[in-house]
Amino acid sequence: MLRFTLRSLVHLIVVLWGVVTITFLALRLSGNPLDALLSPEATEQQRAQLTEQLGLDQPIAMQYLLFLRQLGSGDLGRSIITGTRAGQLVGDQFAHSLLLTVLALAVSAVVGVGLGVLAATRRGGLIDRSVVALAALAQAAPLFWVGLILIIVFAVHLQVLPASGMGGASHLVLPVVALASGIMPYVLRLTRTTMLGVLDTEFIRFQQATGLGHRSIIYRHALKNCLPPVVTLLGLQAGPLLGGVVVIETVFGRSGVGSLLIDSIYSRDYPVVQAAVLVIVVAVVLANVLADLLVAVIDPRVRLGRTAS
Amino acid sequence: MTSSHQAPTQHNRRTFLRLAGGGALAAGALPLLQACGDDADDSGGASQSDLLIIAHAQGIPTLDPDLTAADVPHSVIMEVCEPLLDFDPASRQLQPRLAEEWSYVDDLTLELKLKSGVTFSNGEPFNAEAVKFSLDRTQDPATKSVNTIFANVDSVQVVDELTVRWHLAQPEALLTQYLSVWPILPPQYTTEDPGRLATALVGTGPYKVKTFSAGYEVLLERNETYWGTAPAYREVSYRTIDSAETQMSALLSGEVQIAADLLPQQAQSLESNETVQIVSKPKLLLAYVTMDSRGRTDPDGPLTDKRVRQAINQAVDVDSIIDNLLLGYGTRIGSIAHPAQFGFDESVAPWPYDPSTAQRLLAEAGYADGFELRMISQTAGITAQAEAAQAIQRDLEAVGLQVSLETMTDPTAVGQVVRGGEAGPLFQFGNAARGIFDVGAGLSSFTSDSPFSYFDNPEFMTLYQEQAVTLDPDRRQVILGDLQRLLHEEAPVLFQWAVHAIWAVSDQVSWPGHEGRYSRLYTAKPA
């Protein structure tokens, strides 16, 4: 367990270092914040002044070292636009995005596993084929499109749910469903395939032979054997899910780390982009670690930090 | 409700499981449904005048007027703060606001008499000190202000409690106009904690900030101590909704009352909708394609020849682009001047669409067989610029000019390429004239010494410099007319159109839409 934690930590640091370095360089290649910050009519003198104040007159290697040193002391810098601490700006927004992500993950897990089991136990039947077709459709549809269709149907025509914005739980329904539609098909397919495999094993045949009830076999024994790969998958989907959050927040006019990231990229607000990327990466890595831990809990055969021999 | 909650308990477990997917969602949604119904009731009827919501695609990162030059933040700032003067686009005249009278003592001194009895919403008095403080803050390097308009101002002198004198380094014809876009800040409140202006701006205006939710909403409430006419809506909300489709959906479902960034096609689809009215006014934004007449990218390039530039202006069917791509939401221009600006000369007509004359002019200039040229396409915040670029490409091809398009993001195109002198020979540009309703304000990017200029004309420079220091309005009007004629004739750009703002407004709201940068929601009333 200790070795696993240490390994995860080292892994996290290496990934973070890589990501912040790539972000740092990509941002500086993509344009100058002055162009977004100052009106085009600004004089050379004003540009020079602001360049110096923002520390952009330093050589890029120097800026990078300063940035790493700041980062090492836990300082993510201040927003170029508002002067607020970038870490605080991102932290405030991250809660909104996290809520959306966790709910979407839960919905995909419940609906995906539920439908996957349903399809597997009715292999080849009408339900199986409908469920698989639904999964294919959801997988093929782009997130923003699903979002817009949900808005048009439920907010504009039926007028039962709000089209956009933040507020009570009603504001979460459509964004969560749209976001979940992106990863639910993967969960569903994996559950179905794994379940079909498990149902064919000697172990299940034996259970059937002992006269155990069908439902008990499916939900007590077969499903438990399906879960480890599904949990691993869900952990791996944290990345795509947070990517989807960027799209969903834009479509539904919500605030969150996704829309903050987009705005900050457009305004070349370097410190905020770096902080947002950093937080997203930490979240993704943590989600993966968490999934690994959970699998170990579910399946005692998995021993963390030890290679199977 | 009650029966639907009891129902599952009566079913056996199998049906329950079967229903789990859809049923769980539906059961979860029912109370929410109920909640939504309540919301709808609340927003209907008499309480409608409680809250007005406008949706913009552009976000509001800060409300500090010195730290942003963007339109939507300034629109909010001007609900909360006030300028000394105000411009009325209908009469093209300046009006009093926080200053009641203004006059030039001499060419370098402007004196303003301030309105008495005005207080900031936190109780601080508005007076000459506040004006001086606001200018000092803008000019203090530590503020890192992005405001560039007061380069010619030396200082503000407090004459007495309600009189200020602006001292200039050189005459500045646009000074009074600048004062109409520059908000006055409360000295004490700002000094105590400059950072809080970003989210908790305080001013003398009709509204004050209630809540600021970054990336989502700025909610304003009526300033009960406002000196002027009290606004009709108790609260107004500036919401950020990036997607135009979502804006339209939010409008149709009654969630917002004004959608500010609809596309022409969406506006057209709403024309038959009786619950929504489309309001359109020309924005202070001119779309054109700059031509490198100066030869910055190619010293002997074809575009240094005036005949070629005139030919290009006559080869492109701009009216057709406005009709078909903008669906009429654009006003054709024949020079660098906006119809609502002071000094606009109606006698300067747009170039006619005349490909045969264009071909003749090209032949005269020695390009009977045409030539190849590069065009940089950027949106510059203008609808359908990418499509317009393709239409221009096609029209120019018809007279023998082979145009290759290169698309860039706006900051890159303007900040680096245009500035750096590498944007030729053609590039799309949006000129917002710094939000100033004066023809002179939009011409700075044509002066020879501007890093943005691809035009170098001594006659233009003489006239431009003269208008910049001429304080007599009648004389300026004449010079600005001459400048417009000169630019039309010299054709340093392919003239496109004045961009129209398109607002879809709920029939519950009466709001005229305003030219210029500010929404002025304090003028809105329940219909």
What does this entry look like structurally?
By secondary structure, chain A is mainly α. Chain A has 2 domains: 2-72, no CATH class; 87-307, Orthogonal Bundle (MetI-like fold). Chain A has helices spanning 2-30, 33-37, 44-53, 60-72, 86-121, 126-140, 143-157, 170-199, 202-209, 214-236, 238-251, 257-266, 270-298. With 527 residues, chain B is an alpha+beta fold. In chain B, 33% of the residues lie in helices and 22% in strands. In chain B, helix 10 (306-315) runs antiparallel to helix 12 (355-364). Chain B is globular.
Give me the secondary-structure topology:
The complex is a heterodimer of chains A (309) and B (527).
Chain A: H1 2-30, H2 33-37, H3 44-53, H4 60-72, H5 86-121, H6 126-140, H7 143-157, H8 170-199, H9 202-209, H10 214-236, H11 238-251, H12 257-266, H13 270-298
Helix pairs in contact in A: 1-13, 5-6, 5-8, 5-10, 5-11, 5-13, 6-8, 7-8, 7-11, 8-10, 8-11, 10-13, 11-12, 12-13
Chain B: H1 2-10, H2 13-43, E1 51-56, H3 71-80, E2 85-88, E3 93-96, E4 99-106, E5 109-114, H4 128-139, E6 153-160, E7 163-168, H5 175-178, H6 187-192, H7 197-200, E8 207-213, E9 217-222, E10 235-240, H8 244-252, E11 258-259, H9 264-270, E12 276-291, H10 306-315, H11 318-324, E13 330-332, H12 355-364, E14 372-377, H13 385-398, E15 402-407, H14 410-418, E16 426-431, H15 458-469, H16 473-490, E17 493-506, E18 509-510, E19 525-526
Parallel strand pairs in B: 1-10, 1-11, 14-15, 14-16
Antiparallel strand pairs in B: 2-3, 4-5, 5-7, 6-7, 8-9, 9-10, 11-17, 12-16, 12-17, 13-17, 18-19
